[in-house]
Amino acid sequence: MQFGVYIHFPYCLSKCPYCDFASRxxxxxxxxxxxxxVLRELGARAAQFPGRxxxxxxxxxxxxxxxxPPQLGRVLREIRSLWSVRTGAEVTLEAxxxxxxxxxxxxxxxxxxxxxxxxxxxxxxxxxxALGRKHSGGDxxxxxxxxxxxxxxxxxxxxxxxxxxxxxxxxxxxxxxxxALGPEHISCYxxxxxxxxxxxxxxxALRRGELALPDDEVVSDMGDxxxxELAQGGYARYExxxxxxxxxxxxxxxxxxxxxxxxxxxxxxxxxxREGRGxxxxxxxxxxxxxxxxxxxxxxxxxxxxxxSPDEHLRERIFTGLRLAEGIDLATLERDLDLPVRDRYGEVxxxxxxxxxxxxxxxxxxxxxxxxxxxxxxxxxxx
Length: 383
Known about the structure:
Elements: E1 3-9, E2 11-12, E3 24-25, H1 31-48, E4 53-61, H2 69-82, E5 84-95, H3 102-111, E6 115-121, H4 125-130, H5 137-149, E7 155-161, H6 168-181, E8 185-190, H7 201-207, H8 216-232, E9 236-239, E10 242-244, H9 251-257, E11 261-265, E12 270-275, E13 278-284, H10 288-298, E14 302-308, H11 310-321, E15 328-329, H12 330-337, H13 341-344, H14 346-354, E16 358-360, E17 364-367, H15 369-373, H16 375-380
Helix pairs in contact: 1-2, 1-10, 2-3, 6-8
């Protein structure tokens, strides 16, 4: 089973109106105190996950490119002292256009970060305004070029479609602009505002009728147009919203989708520990101040933890595994969880294949593009 380490940095220059992540806009970031809290928590997490070898390290946020490189370097050194880290392990840092320069990117590269994920979202001025983003399309291009100049040979760009007043043509244009830059990986998400916390501004505006988004059919057409541009550019869809050049699929996120373990530290970070055929999931406090206080008092930032039964873990493995174009190896899953998956769900599997949503060869269950687009609906059939 693969193992990764996730570190959350909650601070941003501004809070995006669609963001439901644990993030906070702060003019002054408590760099030293936050780093000390993460370092202390990592020591406690290492005791929970002894003897693991990390295949990936991921700095998410927030805007972790705002973390002072010397402080982030302390965190990376601590991870490497607590766990074995596989040679060539993927080390990702999320960055926003406009928050970095070549010197800063080069410093992160020197510390061992070897992959950047840049939150472009759109290159079009109207879409960036609708998303509440502070950067311009030009800033996004400069961020990518700066990453290349700093030596990064593995860069991912994030895009969002389904924004207010966006058309299929505009969504396709964003995808084409990303392809033209030539990153190794592109993530393309449909804007989702349902089920978010009450305080997320765009979700609140949608509930009040103050915001009108394209309907589902239009968003689906946008997705088709985006996929066509990416396919033409040589990017293969390996997950519902993720596309990559061959061999450049995200190691860390793939670990989540395949049911791997991950230690987590930082405000709002979530981790998963396998225990027997189930496991334990923990989530840290989403308030930076309370998180730091918890760690200073108790060693971890836990705000909640729950036991995951074998049946619950099976459902999660099916739900996340079907996100991947490679599908799920049901024979391996049966051995791992000691559960008769194919016998239990034979009718559901046959129905998925019969309706043209995917294929089953006796071992692998895979969804096709249509099935991936209807992933949630298809997955719920197992529950």
